[in-house]
Design brief:
65 residues; elongated; mainly alpha
């Protein structure tokens, strides 16, 4: 059995920006269903960039997105 990291340690938890981007992605996917407009697809791409940047801790990339 593999041991999971202790999520009570702050460094083991996602950054608030990553959590926010993740929630926004989930909301977009839940709201749109299988048919995406060009605007929704572009929004999804930007949210993915923001999430990826937040998980790396590089605020400059988030600002650029």
């Amino acid at each position: 059995m593999a041991l999971l990291p202790d999520s009570s340690h702050p460094a083991d938890r996602p950054a608030p920006a990553a959590e926010q981007a993740n929630e926004a992605i989930r909301a977009l996917v839940d709201a749109t269903g299988p048919d995406w407009s060009a605007v929704e697809a572009a929004t999804y791409e930007v949210l993915l960039i923001e999430w990826a940047a937040a998980t790396r801790g590089d605020p400059d990339i988030i600002e650029a997105a």
